[in-house]
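name: query_chain
kind: protein
chains: 1
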Amino acid sequence: MAFADRYLQKHAAGKPLIGIEPGADLRHIVAIPATRESGLTKCLDSLFLCDPPGSPTEVIVLINTAENSDPDTLQLNRKVHQEATAWAKEHRREDLVFHILLAEDLPARHYGAGLARKMVMDEAVHRFDALDRSDGVIVSLDADCTVERNYLSAVVQHFKSQPATHGCSIAFEHPKSGSEFPPEVYEAIKNYELHQRYYLAAVRYTGYPYAYHTVGSCFAVRAGVYCSQGGMSRRQAGEDFYFIQKVAMQGRWSECNNTTVYPSPRPSDRVPFGTGPAVKRQLEAQSTQHSGGTPHSTDIPWFPTHHPELFEMVKALYDLIPGYYAANDPASLNNALHPLLQQYMTECGFDELVAEIRANVASQAAFRERFFRKFNMLWLLQWLHFGRERGFGDVKLTEVLYNSFYNEK
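structure:
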């Protein structure tokens, strides 16, 4: 019985789609979901031009369409599939094999970014299961990305040099200029990426130990770990956040920062939140602001981000973790915290959860580990929304960054 048999029987999105057996030395697979991606070959070119990975590698592209997709999407996907298939026939490398797949009529009630990513990553699991290779690496990428020339070799080396790591976030950088999009798109993506980096830095400032970028196009995970955590969620959005956080909380997540993924800055409404919608909202705000005239290319309205005081309040809570484990009356420690945070803690049953954790651990280290599993990144994100609605609304990103820089100085 191979390592993933049970997972594939219970949780796989379907049967194997590739009829060719994997090579015996296959250890890395890049998994790419795609729909309405007329520029797919740009991504494939980027991978083909990569330095030798140093290990046999496959690229699986799953071009997918829902059962209720409009005729234009269906026609475009079929055209992209034909073009990519022809591209793959003309681009062959012994160390890099491309598989171009087409999946149509996917169930509408589950269809979305999560299902597509799950299907292509599950296909990678089928490949590794055939080899009984649980330490095989599944690399998640999006079809609108390009990658640095050392992308494949850097990922291979990262897992080789860190055999205990379960997975990693991969460094990313959106294009900040160019001719592919109007200037205002590049201005908008600068705002959003700065927001992403500020948010991660602020979460790490609180002391939360499992803070990583959770970008679906910029991570990799071992096949066995992927299966043990139940695989990718079928969520229509945010599937990357939930999956990466679930694995990261096992304590063996890492960062691969010596290569770069370049995600597209394009506006999009395919998912309710994320890069595409964030850029789209900024452009719409600009259009509304200048409906009576011609906007300047760089005149993007200020970008909102989380109030820094909300992170300060959580840091004060996390600083009290040793006390929550050791104190005779842990609830009394709450009095040292901001009243708004105390209100949130009451609403989420904080004291009861702390009591439950204390009753099931025998050391401060075990308490701390369980504490952060309960009061995790999702809990923190919900707190930020709670605080926003009760007096600590969004602030200007530029002001937060300016103040943070000069406070450090």
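note: The mean pLDDT is 93.
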